[in-house]
Structure formats: structure tokens, C-alpha cells
Amino acid sequence: MKIARFDNNRVGMVRDDDVIQDLTGALAQLPAHRYPFPHHDALIANLEILNNATTTRVVPLARVELLSPVANPGKIMAAPVNYTKHLEEALADKGIHHGNLVAEIHKAGIFLKATSSVVGPSEGVHLVHTDRRNDHEVELAVVIGTKGRNIAAAEALSYVAGYCIGLDMTIRGTEDRSLRKSPDSYTVLGPWLVTADEIPDPGALELSLAVNGKVRQQANTKDLILGVPELIAWASSFYTLHPGDVLLTGTPQGVGPVRPGDVMVASLERVGEMRLLVS
Prior knowledge:
Elements: E1 2-6, E2 10-15, E3 19-22, E4 58-60, E5 66-67, E6 76-78, H1 84-92, H2 94-97, H3 105-108, E7 111-113, E8 118-119, E9 134-136, E10 138-144, E11 160-168, E12 170-171, H4 177-180, E13 187-195, E14 206-211, E15 214-220, H5 228-236, E16 246-248, E17 256-257, E18 263-268, E19 272-277
Parallel strand pairs: 6-16, 8-13
Antiparallel strand pairs: 1-2, 1-5, 1-13, 2-3, 3-4, 6-7, 9-12, 9-17, 10-11, 10-16, 11-13, 14-15, 14-18, 18-19
């Protein structure tokens, strides 16, 4: 199933990548919560309500504004330098490392991004600190579906709700990663969530990003240093994972700057592609 959030927080199922069946009425079945609210995304925790939902209308995909498929991620976890070739380019390019220590992922660890940085593809990326280099980083994004802690790698994929494309936008500089990667709109998720049953092996997916029609990043998730199961196991050894938490798995080589007016197109095998404007 491909689940999209669109327009004014409507929810639907994408069919044939050209229409959306509007299933927003199913949201009335979500459990009611009172303050203090839970640490998870209510829809991601209850995706089964969409299985028998009634379609109220069918909308051409070209006519909707696509939002992030996850409305309320409790946390965004991100894996740095998780492709060998990206580690090599980061070490070689002063425009990337700015004198910071760049270590392979086993030493660098996982970092966190602000949840306020999340947008969908139709909202675009709005650059800040444009006197500095702002780079694109396309990634496989994993959305957690089941609460868990100290998860074994062998069981990790059973905790996944689904997958989408992630863009981890980055301001280059000497500050901590979390600061430079957390401005508003610097985490793009989309174009929709593909449920885990449609992607049995997230470790064999083609991934790419083009800027103004020119391909800059192209790789396969088989080249990840730590694969999805290992990343989930590692993250869950530090944090309790909740439905709707997002894990960005790392970007491949080819990262580069974008400027206002640029158009990025990111694609992920078995998921689709998303187009977004930089402003």
C-alpha cells in the first residue's frame, strides 16, 4: 500500500502512481488521546484502519499538494557517512568537512534532527544562511511502526511500518550536525509511505537525485555500511523506538550545493519519485 498525506491533512492510498483514493474518513477511527499526548504518530500506529476504509473520492495525483507521509514523528534519527564512497568524498572535500572530524559510522554514531524540520515535497526546501554552502543528501527513510527497545537485528524489519524517500538537507560549517541539518524544511519525506510488505528487502534499492535535470547522486542501498536491520538494532540500543519515528539511513556519494530556483528530483526503487523546488 502507498499511503499519502495531501492537501489539508487528508489521507489516501495512491493507485497506479496517478490517482489518490481519499480515505480521510478512516481517521475518525483513531484512538482519542488527551493531554499529555503520546510519543508517537497515531496514524502510523494504527495503519490497519486503512485496510477496509471507504473511498470518498478519487483525485488525480497531479492536482494535490503532497505533505510528509508522517505527520508527527517523535524523533528523526540519521546515520552519517554510511556509504564508503561518501565517506571518501567527505574526507577529501574541505567544503564538506570544514575541518570537522569525519569518522566512519561506527565511530560517528547516529545523530538527531529536529522534528520541526519535516516537510513534504510540495512544500519545498527554503534555504537559510545562503552565504554558506547548502547541500542535498538523498536517503532511504525508514518509518518505525511498532514500539521497541534493544531490538535484535534479525527481528528489526518486523518493527518497520514502511519506507519513503528522505532528503537530509545540510548547511556546511563547523557546528554540530544536528544544528546545521535542522532548519525548517531541511528534512523532506515523501512522496508517500510504501508499507513494509511491498519492500521485503530494503537492502537492494536503487536511489538517485538530480538537480535541474542532471544526476548528482546514484547508488544502491546494498552499498550501505550498516544496513537497515543493523541501524534499527543500534538505534534501539540507545532509544525506545515509537511508531512514526523516522530513521534516515545515510546518503551516497555525489552530495553538492543547491541554490534558490533549483529543482530537485529524488527517486527510490519500489517507492517512486518526488520533485521539489528550492527557494
